Amino acid sequence: MEKINGKYAIQGIPVLSICEKYDTPLYVYDTAIMKRQYDKLIHAFQGVELKINYACKALTNLNVLRFFKSLGAGLDTVSIQEVMLGLKAGFAPNDIIFTPNCVSLEEIKMAVDLGVKINIDNISILEQFGHEYGNKIPVCIRFNPHIMAGGNAKISTGHIDSKFGISIYQLRHVERVVASQNIRVSGLHMHTGSDILDVDVFLRGADILLELAHTFKDLEYIDFGSGFKVAYKPDDVTTDVDLLGEKMTERFKNFCQSYGKKLTLMFEPGKFLVSEAGYFFAKVNVIKQTTATVFAGIDSGLNHLIRPMFYDSYHHIINVSNPDATPRIYTVVGYICETDTFGWDRKINEIREGDVLCFFNAGAYGFMMASNYNSRFRPAEVLIHEGKDYLITRRETLDDLIRNQIMIESI
Ligand SMILES: *Cc1c(COP(=O)(O)O)cnc(C)c1O
Questions:
Q1: What does the DSSP 8-state code read for residue 367?
Q2: Is the CB of residue 364 below 6 angstroms from any atom belonging to ligand 1?
Q3: Ligand 1 center to 100 CA (angstroms)
Q4: Average model confidence (pLDDT) for the chain?
Q5: Is 271 touching ligand 1 by the criterion CB < 6 Å?
Q6: Domains in the chain, ordered, with CATH?
Q7: 3-class DSSP state for residue 75?
């Protein structure tokens, strides 16, 4: 978001005019930022075969999927429905990897039938998969390197108590299953969490995975997951992807040399690619002064953006309607009949009732986790692409709320 003549704009379009045109609450995404983030990774990991699979659970709008496809990305999916969306968006099956957790063998078989790459994260399913397909369908195995990483416990997946992946200490067991069922292991995978700041944490995980990799003779790719931290505040520190790229490509090249084959290095970022590309706009319904604080109550709540309440995530909030006013202290809350606080004691330019607030970092896990709680409509989504605004999801209506309900006659 830039400021033009004192007014906030995205790709030259004033944000207030976007909000007027499509109404609030509203999600707005900027493809230029998605591309900037994608290019950062491509630039950081040079000299190796690199494939970036966009972890689409962060934001699955078909237009966003098609945009990443146009950049050359593959897709990381966690449900058969995401696989189907990816295919609908035009991805080749081989450019989609299915990385579910605790799904049924039936769902995995459906993914096999759709021709996508399969990633398995437990020994039971691996055994059944081998029994079913032998070496006919290659698989990727998700290992858990047991490193504590990630912003908080809800978003870290690599620790000892995590449900994700097969423990590295079960390597012998995996080897036995692979050998006895004649399974072709074409990929190895790890994903240790979200918001990992420290390059060394990544490298430790990578070293562990690369050491394991010598055990498997048919590898084609190694997938190092995601977890790059993005900026949540104007001067936040983020994962140094250039440093990571430099160190990891060096390790990866050395590995390929000793392995005797050039493998593909894969990553599957979600947040890194779309978090900063998204803005959430909501209008202030009421300014409520209590004995303790000044609340700004907006026309939205945890039904539309649950991350602050669910993960204690920080979303920077600005008043786009009053950009030059003196900052004051506000607690920004939603309209849900439950405590839904977006931010305590935020310094925001003076808010008047009717002003539009903008929440940053709303591209990842924002709209995707939106619900109809309190029987509210989910917001519309707008994409800003090459200087133009496009409605990509229309606002819901009452019909949407009751579409799947069935009236019974005996009442
Ligand atoms: C959620 C998820 C990702 C993306 O994580 P981000 O923190 O959004 O980058 C990547 N891989 C897998 C397997 C995931 O489940």
A1: G
A2: yes
A3: 11
A4: 94
A5: yes
A6: 2-23+278-362+364-402 (2.40.37.10), 31-271 (3.20.20.10)
A7: strand
